[in-house]
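Can't attach files on this board, so I'm pasting raw text. These are the components:
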Amino acid sequence: MSINGMAYIVGAYEHPTRKAPDKSVAQLHAEVALGALADAGLSKDDVDGYFCGGDAPGTGPLSLVEYMNLKVRHADSTNIGGSSYILHVNHAAQAIAAGKCDVALITLAGRPRSESLQKGPPQRTDNPVQPDFPWEQAFGMTTLNAYAMCAMRHMHEFGTTSDQLAWVKVAASHHAQHNPNAMLRDVVTVEDVANSPVVADPLRRLDCCVISDGGGAVIVTRPEIARSLKRPLVKVRGAGEAIKHLSGGDVDLTYSAGARSGPLAFTEAGLKPTDIKYVSLYDSFTMTVIIQLEDLGFCRKGEGGRFVADGNLISGVGRLPFNTDGGGLCNNHPNHRGGMTKIIEAVRQLRGEAHPAVQVANCDLALAHGTGGLLGTRHGSATLIMERE
Amino acid sequence: MSVLSSSLHHHPETQPFWSALGERRFLFKACRGCGRAHWYPRAICPFCDSPDTEWRNASGRGVIYSYSIMRVAKPPYAIAYVTLEEGPTMMTNIVDSDLEAIAIGKPVEVAIRKTTDDESLPMFKLA
Ligand SMILES: [Zn+2]
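---
Top answer:
Structure tokens for the assembled complex are below.
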């Protein structure tokens, strides 16, 4: 069964905090849930489906459903890292289409910035039982160098340059200057990125996303309920999800699982990349954006560096405005998971509620895409195409 | 590194690899069903699902597929994917080499490193 037209996003809320030393993670989940419900014009008692990622406190949704005192008949905590929430919209639409719930609440929250002030490369804390653990963790693999190896190979095969990577950050910073909540609001140049210190070759500090507390939530519901509310209608047109890994040692780091999730979403939506007016792309690192643009079909494989150069991602300037809230590179990356904020800014664009300086004219079709886990090892991708009705 | 010892007892499937490494022998796993080598080692072939997999001695030779030097670590270190002569590509470290000389496509050879009294790791150096 296709989800095209079966569900609408009616509520979206991004927590304004970037540092929450005095709040619990559960409290942040509840605050974003109530924010999204208020945005939709719904109450907690309307919620009968709940979705969260594997990072939520408790065993899946158990603790949070109790904390918020929800009464749900459907729950799902499928975990593909930071892209989970984009997948959750897909799963919520499927559940709604199947009659398993009517109003789905999806939340993300976390406070890594308050919890860890230590400097240096972040250490991964994966479970020793997972089969890949001894073959990677012992070599000092971190998020930084896992993504860096993708960037290094992409540069080697396609001639992608550090200056091209820098253009992704430049575009994000142009957008972030208009977002009062963004952590980094200064407009940066390609030279600024080039002059920032290398953290893990070839990635520099300004190629990396921020670390922030906070969170976000969205509400997905069936068409009849969506039409009864007073918000602009944002229809789910299509979605796709995929997992990519190291294939028994047959390694190719130049593409992501988006090469499979993207076509699934476009086929379901009955659309092609040139139809899309605005994209939210996971920007854990600048290279993540370049690889995703190629995999989703916005340019050919290997052309991503040239595609982003000269401001092509800047709203009002380039052909494909992206991450007009400043994205993970400048705005926020709550709990190291950027998928939720990708949906929220796409919803703002479709509703015409983005900042006027970055609002895309006639924005009727938008795409949100995430890559969660590690691009350099195993990761999940989720693609979501939405339409303003 | 303690990260290894904390995990190895969970993986009896690959204990022969670590035991051999302690004797300075570098093994890989190949499948008698389809003939292909894979990485990381598994009891069941990830390509054809055959349980008839066997340990073989690796040549220890390979080429760098990709790498990164962790500059924010003290001291900096090189992580890499190395494609073994036998076929599969594995994550490792490049050691005993000039970090600035590391490049994609360069040949490397195994450099088994004793990381604690009872642990060794399969690392590589520029050949
Ligand atoms: Zn086989």
